[in-house]
Fold each of these.
Amino acid sequence: MDTKAFKRSLQQSENYHRKGFGHQDEVADQMQSEYQSLLIQEIRDSNYSITRGDVTIHLAKAFGFCWGVERAVAMAYETRTHFPSEKIWITNEIIHNPSVNQRLRDMRVEFISVDSGKKDFSVIGDGDVVILPAFGASVQEMQLLNDKGCTIVDTTCPWVSKVWNTVEKHKKREYTSIIHGKYNHEETVATSSFAGKYLIVLNIGQAEYVANYVLNGGDKNEFLAKFAKACSKGFDPDADLVSVGIANQTTMLKSETEDIGKLFEKTMMKKYSPDKLNDHFQSFNTICDATQERQDAMFDLVEEKLDLMLVIGGFNSSNTTHLQEIAEEEKIPSYHIDSVARILSANRIEHRELSGDLKITENWLPDGKIVVGVTSGASTPDIVVEDVIEKIFELKVLARV
Ligand code: SF4
């Protein structure tokens, strides 16, 4: 399928919208009152630090809602204002934050249900409005919605579209896209739908396995079993790893994406000689600024002397998980929570481990004076961070009486 041509024709259709509808001011006020926080503003204004009683909070210097998320949520709000009585659907969570998704449900935006891993698009009627979330939708979904005559409001973040353009460039040159990401993450599903041949690697370990196969060959069946869900149809590692281009899910750990890029650059140089590199390797920088800034701020934060760290964000949020990874690497007691409700008491906190399992840790909040690092993922509104900080203040006050 010529995905580029399809996108071009979709963008010319009068049923397709990728900008707001002129209700920005109204929506900005609404979002400010629902998601912003005076306490967080106060902490920002005091060089990202605040002390109350026994508690000092150090906030990361970049955290929370990114530009792309804010834009997507605002567009969803505008859609409701613009189509007050129409049926509005969304193909997936708008962003990975439970409170924001709930807010959309309250605004009568319906989520397309998934049955045995398949979305049920049959519920969408002629003339319904369908929102595509910040991390996009696959080209097949877009085509289906377009064929149904829906009004499409596309909130895909431009950084994500940039990755789609990158894999389309690989496709044009018949390069295989090596995508650093999670094969079942919505963004990577969408990105791979725009690619020609592709292989998705989760981490540097998988990338090393592939690089080794390129240089030394190996067990093809084992390779295909390992990447069964993470490669294009008919993928043949013996034939399809001759020329490769690098792309990524925008929220992966930046340093790891860079290492994967360097690894394949070196591998292709070794296999085909440095002067032939351009025929076998292509790389564009597709790491989003917001992800990069939040990770850099986290690296600065973990340099501080901290007693513990709280990483706040949706449990299915990839960028939040990577922030947690940074804290764990520094051996700081760190808890990934998605809302204040996970703080069960001064003694118990429920949190997500890197494995994805939920765990309850006892005695998580130390006695006496404490310094707490706080950050939040790109889908987390400030108000959620405020609730968590206020809870810590409250628990420490109660501990004194
Ligand atoms: S994290 Fe980056 S790519 Fe994702 S929505 Fe935010 S700005 Fe866009």
Note: Residues 66-69, 134, 157, 159-160, 250-251, 288, 290-291, 319, 378 surround iron/sulfur cluster (CB under 6 Å).
Amino acid sequence: MDTVDVLVVGAGLAGLNTARLLADAGLDVAVCERRTSLDTGIRTTGIFVRRTLTDYELPHLGPAVRRVLLYPPSLREPVELVSAHDEFRVGDMAGIYAQAVKDAERAGAQVNLNAGYPHKATKARFTIGADGARSTVAKQLGLDVNRRLITGIEEVYPIRTGSTPTFHCVVDPRLAPGYIAWVIDDGEHAHVGLAGRADRFPAPLPQLLQRFRDSFPTPTPTGPVKRRGGPIPVGGLLRKIVSPQGLLVGDAAGAVSPLTAGGLDPCLRMSELAASVTFDYLRSGNKYVLEHYDAAALRRRYRIRSAMRRGLSLVREPGLAELAFTGLRTPAGKAVAKRILFT
Ligand SMILES: Cc1cc2nc3c(=O)[nH]c(=O)nc-3n(C[C@H](O)[C@H](O)[C@H](O)COP(=O)(O)OP(=O)(O)OC[C@H]3O[C@@H](n4cnc5c(N)ncnc54)[C@H](O)[C@@H]3O)c2cc1C
């Protein structure tokens, strides 16, 4: 049986980034991933926000998007928000994961696909749960687990529109209860999706997606259509995310904006903290070092967004959503929306 310093469970963005940083620091690191290929079972649209684009160098990004249109259920008179900056870029996630594997391996980590956790072939001094919203590591280590989740589904396909890259967001509780339906069209790809509370979907998700496509003018595919989806934790960062046996990072730790459901930026930032705390702990053996992995400090950032999410989930009737748009059309409403969407 192999013995390593750190076993990272999950080869998503959080796991691969953490593994690379730890291997770079000289630790012996193995990653175990239950998928057989990282091209399949992708669970993200891959929208990276300005803050991430500024702070991290990412490969395989699509054209910049500066324009957002927000629609009420009637789809009439969308609210237009335009930024002076490149606010979003959609990543080719298969390419981004492939590059992250290469980088982790170059740093010295072993990345094992088709290797589900608990992974009997590898014994580790410390285990990092980067295994997504429904983390097995969290359960095995007695850490907190995500309880508030929404579910998303989307289709992605190549397009050639020549139109201004635009992120269309539709607030309609009949399609996306407690969240939104979206089309992001960057001129090269279209992502058409919706997400919401699983207990409130009025029909099976594929049927709702079809209904959305029929009601909204989506770009025409010029190539194969791929479907993705999965759970998104929206309860905010969990409280107990570290123990002397291991820690949680990314979705496993609930590190997703409760309002926008964006988790890619938190994955990158939190994996830096996870790697530095793990390194210090394994080097010193001092368990007080683990207190630096402090969920309370990180959770503060999510407090206002959690309150706004609760507000969004109160919008259960289309009429109420239409009414909310009256406020959104005012200069103050637009300013708030810009603050949330443009970082
Ligand atoms: C439909 C959808 C669209 C989204 N769009 C965006 C977006 O555009 N922008 C944004 O910022 N955020 C978005 N999010 C959220 C974001 O994608 C996630 O927060 C982020 O990808 C989480 O990364 P992660 O590495 O923590 O987890 P994941 O990417 O879920 O990776 C976890 C990995 O662990 C593996 N795994 C699970 N269990 C085991 C096990 N027992 N053994 C071994 N391996 C295991 C899984 O196979 C997976 O590869 C979206 C989420 C969904 C569902």
Note: The mean pLDDT is 93.
